[in-house]
Amino acid sequence: MTETTPQQEHAKPSEKKSEKKELSQKGERHWYAVHTYSGYEDAVARYLKQRVDSLEMDNKIFNVVVPKEKSIKIKNGKRKEVEEKIYPGYVLVDMIMSEDSWYVVRNTPRVTGFVGSDSTEPTPLSKEEVDFLLARMDGVEKKVKLDYILGETVKITDGPFKDYEGKISDIDHEHMKIKVLVPIFGRETAVELDSLQLQKI
Questions:
Q1: Residue 138 or 177, more confident
Q2: Which residue has the higher pLDDT, 80 or 128?
Q3: CA distances from 90 to 6, 43, 58, 139 (A)
Q4: Considering Cα of 166, then 172, then 173, then 177, what sign does the dihedral take?
Q5: Helix (H) or strand (E) holding 49
Q6: Residues 23, 30, 40, CA angle at the centre, nearest 5°?
Q7: Residue 38, CB half-sphere, CA atoms under 13 Å: how many?
Q8: Which residues contact 81 (CB under 8 A, 6 or more apart)?
């Protein structure tokens, strides 16, 4: 995080003053995207919430969210629900942009800056962007991720072709089906199987 030193604060008073004036005129509540060091999103959200409480900024900073979505991952025939970040390296902040709220967020450890046209005028997210993200976070549509890749050799663990080995020729994440090329009578035949019928070798 790049913090402003006392020397830098007094280096360009006119520039600093105009920046603060510009921010204080915003006055409207919006969601903003804040860039963080990758891997520190949850820590930044925690730090920022603590700062909001200790500095009594809950009248200007209302919510801090790390955008995540739940998905179902299939691995070795087992379904596992995992939570993954939608946008690694970003935290969303619901706030009224002003001189003091900008300062609180910008000077939170591991924050590198607001997303926007420049550092003095962060750009709020559009309503469509926010609605889309919140819908994904609410799990309106849970994504299914099959832990297989095309061309990978797998073993069939259930069904008529149990114990056969074959190569994956197609993966249908939506319906959780996988086509495997199985050697039958000396030639490869595509067989569609449920992902739970397969095992990695």
A1: 177
A2: 128
A3: 28, 12, 21, 19
A4: negative
A5: helix 41-54
A6: 90
A7: 3
A8: 70, 71, 72, 73
**Interatomic CA distance for residues 61 and 28, integer angstroms:** 11
Q: What is the mean pLDDT of residues 61-79?
A: 81
CA 26 to CA 43: how far, in whole Å? 28
Domains of the chain: 6-144 (3.30.70.940), 148-200 (2.30.30.30)
- pLDDT level of residue 4 (50, 70, 90 thresholds): very low
Take residue 145 and report the two structure tokens written for it: 């991720």
Dihedral angle, C-alpha 90, 96, 99, 102, nearest 10 °: -10
Q: What residues have CB less than 8 Å from 168, skipping those under 6 apart?
A: 148, 149, 150, 151, 152, 153, 154, 178, 179, 180, 181
pLDDT at 118: 56
The whole-model pTM stands at 0.58
Angle between the 99-106 and 41-54 helix axes, to the nearest 10 degrees?
A: 140
pLDDT confidence bin for 144, thresholds 50/70/90: low
